[in-house]
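Notebook p. 47: complex prediction with guanine.
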Amino acid sequence: MEVSNKKENILISSEEIAKKVAELGKKISEDYKDKKLYVLSLLRGSFIFTADLVRHIDVPVKIGFMATSSYGHGEVSSGQVKIVQDITDNIEGYDVLIVDDIIDTGITMKFVMEYIKSKNPASVKSCVLLDKPERRKVEITPDYCCFTIPDVFVVGYGLNYGDYYRNKPYIFNWE
Ligand SMILES: O=P(O)(O)OC[C@H]1O[C@H](OP(=O)(O)OP(=O)(O)O)[C@H](O)[C@@H]1O
Ligand SMILES: Nc1nc2[nH]cnc2c(=O)[nH]1
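Predicted complex, structure tokens below:
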């Protein structure tokens, strides 16, 4: 589960990612011009996407983190979302944008959206790099998304295999 010697199949290059992330940052800047934007980054998977995205946001923004886990080391969701590290800011009255790397079954994003709504924000929306709609188990559509992908387990740009590969600058799977 640590490293694989199979050939990498690049599905989305770092250049394609950079272009889409920049466009998305611009759109979010327009949409949140007169709002109180709070970006909530879900660790660990979204750390790279968040870091790149917020550098394309040119309106005032607070940035915070929450760590959730539901996959462990496997490729299948346990169906249970664990809050590994809770949000530490008071987000009451803020327009919270929850940023994650992927919506797959949708269980994580749905759970976190409900949890954040209970803290009385002005609004809550979701923003992901990847959407994998074929695997959905709960009803959810991302408010902002860079790429829709088919039902393949993908790795890189924050997404892990075991504890590894989050540092790869592109999205790939193995052939
Ligand atoms: O839509 P879902 O099926 O719930 O899957 C999406 C979630 O799965 C991954 O998190 P994981 O639990 O692997 O933790 P990680 O962020 O530390 O990788 C990913 O980062 C998302 O948060
Ligand atoms: N690495 C990885 N984590 C996930 N969590 C939910 N879907 C995926 C996926 O396709 N890849």
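Notes: The first strand starts at residue 8 and ends at 12. The chain has a mean pLDDT of 96.
Next step: compare against the earlier run before touching the bench.
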